[in-house]
């Protein structure tokens, strides 16, 4: 499977809308970028798609009812629990920032991710 790479413009947009908040970290992930809080990813890039993780069913229903949203990740193996934001929202960063903030708030309530143990 070929993993698409994001454009520099989308990477810049993503970094600009991820809140600078305690516990938030933006780091590379498989040639893309992910935003994490307490070790849990709440938003990320897959090529030029921006995706968010929502844990509240009402928020999921509200977002997925908007035309242009869809699965996030590879077509043959989308990431469960994540939704791609409409591509045209990249022209209105405020809308992207709004949903990234919602994702941060919801995922931020999850317990911190425990490091995986490596086999000796």
SSE blueprint:
Layout: H1 8-17, E1 24-29, E2 32-37, E3 40-46, E4 49-53, H2 57-64, E5 70-71, E6 82-84, H3 93-107
Antiparallel strand pairs: 1-2, 2-3, 3-4, 4-6, 5-6
Notes on the protein architecture:
- The chain has 120 residues and is an alpha+beta fold.
- The mean pLDDT is 93.
- The longest helix is centred in the C-terminal third of the chain and has 15 residues, at 93-107.
- The protein is built from three helices and six strands.
Mind telling me the CATH class?
Alpha Beta
Q: How many runs of DSSP E, i.e. beta strands? A: 6
Q: Tell me what portion of residues adopts beta-strand conformation.
A: 15-25%
Shape from CA axes?
A: globular
Number of helices: 3
Write out the strand line-up for the largest beta sheet, numbering strands in chain order: 1-2-3-4-6-5
The total number of structural domains is: 1
Within the CATH hierarchy, at the fold level, what is the topology? Aspartate Aminotransferase, domain 1
Q: For the report, how would you describe the main beta sheet?
A: 6 strands, antiparallel
Structural class given helices, strands, pairing? alpha+beta
> How far is the first residue's CA from the last residue's CA?
30 Å
- Elements, N to C (H/E): HEEEEHEEH
Summarize the structure.
The protein has helices at residues 8-17, 57-64, 93-107, and strands spanning 24-29, 32-37, 40-46, 49-53, 70-71, 82-84. By secondary structure, it is of the alpha+beta class.
Keywords:
120 residues, alpha+beta, Aspartate Aminotransferase, domain 1, 24% strand
């Amino acid at each position: 499977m070929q993993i698409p790479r994001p454009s520099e413009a989308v990477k810049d947009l993503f970094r600009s809308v991820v809140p600078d908040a305690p516990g938030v970290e933006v780091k590379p992930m498989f040639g893309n970028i992910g935003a994490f809080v307490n070790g849990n990813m709440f938003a990320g890039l897959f090529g030029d798609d921006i995706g968010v993780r929502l844990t509240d069913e009402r928020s999921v229903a509200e977002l997925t009812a908007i035309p242009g949203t869809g699965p996030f990740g590879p077509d043959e193996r989308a990431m469960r629990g994540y939704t791609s934001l409409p591509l045209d929202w990249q022209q209105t960063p405020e809308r992207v920032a709004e949903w990234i903030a919602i994702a941060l708030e919801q995922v931020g309530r999850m317990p911190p991710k425990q490091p995986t143990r490596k086999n000796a």
